[in-house]
Amino acid sequence: MGKIVIISGPSGSGKTTVCKLLKQHSNIEESISVTTRSPRINEKDGESYHFVSDARFKEMIKNGEFAEYAEYCGYYYGTPLKALKDAIKREVFYILEIDVQGAMQIKEKFPDAISVFLLPPNRLTLSQRLINRNANKEQDMANRLKIAEKELEYKDKYDYCVVNDDLDATVNTIRKILNLA
Ligand code: ADP
Ligand code: 5GP
Fold first, then answer.
1. How far apart are CA 32 and CA 167, in angstroms?
2. Tens digit of each residue's pLDDT (9 = 90 or more) over 81-98
């Protein structure tokens, strides 16, 4: 049986970067979420996300196609249920890089899921990383920092908290958590 691994953390904490490195291990796969937000430069449909319209997302909700879904910063994000069920049948760690609302839904439905909350070293570093990434408009970035404060309140509900200071150390810590080190 495969294992679900939830990775959450404020925007800019390093989830995407860390997951990309984790995926280099042959036993680790990552779920591709569905979202109504627009692609960033360098994001490809079907790789980073499945980018869909609002109407299509709502239809997918109605059809029961999501393991969980949530609204974040004015857009919908959801985890496809079928791909998750297929992954559980394989002997893999299946990473869900999702927000705290989605994480709580998955924990409820799949209590065996391993949950990791990624923390920035401090607030200044978080905003600096968001600025450096340069992928969000100013207002969107302000909203994300505001949401970050709320998200941090959820950290104690996770099995593990990992401070993403040195990138290699973070990846090694998570590998150890999964007994892959
Ligand atoms: P998230 O997916 O959580 O929103 P990203 O993975 O996009 O965050 O990371 C935000 C920015 O911070 C990116 O520019 C990334 O290269 C950088 N970053 C991530 N982890 C580290 C780290 N440990 N040290 C320095 N910069 C980092
Ligand atoms: P971003 O727009 O930066 O790619 O993602 C914004 C937030 O949505 C992040 O916290 C990210 O983890 C979360 N997210 C991405 N995919 C999903 C998903 O399928 N479900 C939920 N609930 N959150 C998601």
1. 22
2. 999 999 999 989 999 999
- If one residue of 8, 17, 152 were mutated to test the ligand 1 pocket, choosing by the most ligand atoms within 8 A of its CB, it would be 17
Q: Which helix (H) or strand (E) holds 29?
A: strand 28-30
Instruction: Provide the 10 A C-beta neighbour count for residue 90.
Output: 11
The C-alpha atoms of residue 133 and residue 32 are separated, in whole angstroms, by 21
Domains of the chain: 3-177 (3.40.50.300)
Ligand 1 atom nearest to 164, measured from its CA:
23
Question: For the whole prediction, is pTM greater than 0.90?
Answer: yes
Q: Which ligand does the CA of 71 lie closest to?
A: 2
- Which sign does the torsion angle of CA 163, 169, 174, 178 carry? negative
CA distance 144 to 37: 14
% of residues, the chain, pLDDT over 90: 87
Asked whether the predicted pLDDT for residue 119 surpasses 80, the reply is: yes
